[in-house]
Amino acid sequence: MLKGKTIILGVTGCIAAYKAATLVSRLKDLDAEVWVVMTAEAAQLVGPLTFRTLSGNPVILDLYSQEIATPVPHISLSQKADLLVIAPATANMIGKIAGGLADDALSTMALSTTAKKLLAPGMNCEMWRNPAVAANSEKIVKLGWELIGPEEGKLACGDLDIGRMSEPEEIISRIIELLVAPRDLKGKKILITAGGTREQIDPVRYLANRSSGKMGYAIAKAASRRGAAVTLISANASLPVPAGVRLVEVESAREMLAAVAGGAQNADAVIMAAAVADFKVKSKRAKIKKGKGLVLELEATSDILKKLAGKKGKRKLVGFALETENLVKNAKKKLAEKNLDLIFANGPENFGSDQARGVLIDRAGRRVDLPLADKETIASRILDAIF
């Protein structure tokens, strides 16, 4: 499946480095050419000979490796690679990439390669939650890196928490998706909404919600990668636009309704991942001055899904249900009332996170529970269920 593909596997000093051996073995089984680059810390955990034996190639340990017959192996390899994978990736390596640092062979390759890039973090839960690591992770995504994980599970310190590197098979699946992604959606036109709408209270204040738009953007990215022509209607989301995706930016529910109505006519599927405000202020006003109290009179916004359902035609209509109680029951009710083909039910814990969990329910009432995973994995599962 990966014949003719050159993959650089970077291994850093996380205890999960031993799993990288399985990655090399599986990649070789898929006929990929694999070159392993290790940091000094990784070499303390797993012997380079292990990777040399499994990959069939010399292991690069530093910038001045003498084992490869080129003057600057870290540059020549990075130029011919189809993919650079760092698994596991420590907080330190993530910070180096975010800061544009290059003080060893792996970080130098990370800067010099034009290949696709995938990173699988692995670290202690509190390190992963550290604001600096969170900011660096967000930055490298904007720089073009794909992230997978980390997952929840038992950590080396004994805690049951987030921080585990994704399992090798999950990483292999993402590698295959990146390098030989199926083009099974070629010819399909998909309209996706993302983010959270805002309803103006006065010229400086608004009603809003906590939606980051990450789920809708992940679906758009996955659909475009699989060959679909994707229009993404985005409300107040500060995220990189996926390659090949047409972006339409809106702010309010009214603007989103207009954009969806105009774009849905020729769509094969409409996926309403946005968190659309249910209410807006009934009357506009000047800037509200500070006082003892304030009463806002609200009215309902237009129900975009309901309007689409009335003119559904042959297109697939997919909704999202965010519930704090009776998750499945309330999602099934919404699915029926709005004539949906599929609904993804989830809780508020998914807001703003790079991961999600939830339940997929179709028109026949069949449900599929999706355990916690990165949002791109969830996005692929949603697309699989639609088509």
From TrEMBL:
Residue ranges of domain Flavoprotein in the record: 5-178
Active site positions, chain numbering: 157
Gene Ontology cellular-component terms listed: phosphopantothenoylcysteine decarboxylase complex
Record's keyword annotation contains RNA-binding: no
Pfam families for the chain: DFP, Flavoprotein
Enzyme Commission identifier(s): 4.1.1.36, 6.3.2.5
Chemical reaction(s) catalysed: (R)-4'-phosphopantothenate + L-cysteine + CTP = N-[(R)-4-phosphopantothenoyl]-L-cysteine + CMP + diphosphate + H(+); N-[(R)-4-phosphopantothenoyl]-L-cysteine + H(+) = (R)-4'-phosphopantetheine + CO2
UniProt GO MF annotations: FMN binding; metal ion binding; phosphopantothenate--cysteine ligase activity; phosphopantothenoylcysteine decarboxylase activity
Region (Phosphopantothenoylcysteine decarboxylase) location: 1-189
Domain of life: Bacteria
Region (Phosphopantothenate--cysteine ligase): 190-387
PANTHER family: HOMO-OLIGOMERIC FLAVIN CONTAINING CYS DECARBOXYLASE FAMILY (PTHR14359), PHOSPHOPANTOTHENOYLCYSTEINE DECARBOXYLASE (PTHR14359:SF6)
Task of the protein: Catalyzes two steps in the biosynthesis of coenzyme A. In the first step cysteine is conjugated to 4'-phosphopantothenate to form 4-phosphopantothenoylcysteine, in the latter compound is decarboxylated to form 4'-phosphopantotheine.
NCBIfam families: coaBC_dfp
Protein name per Swiss-Prot or TrEMBL: Coenzyme A biosynthesis bifunctional protein CoaBC
Source species of the chain: candidate division WOR-1 bacterium RIFOXYC12_FULL_54_18
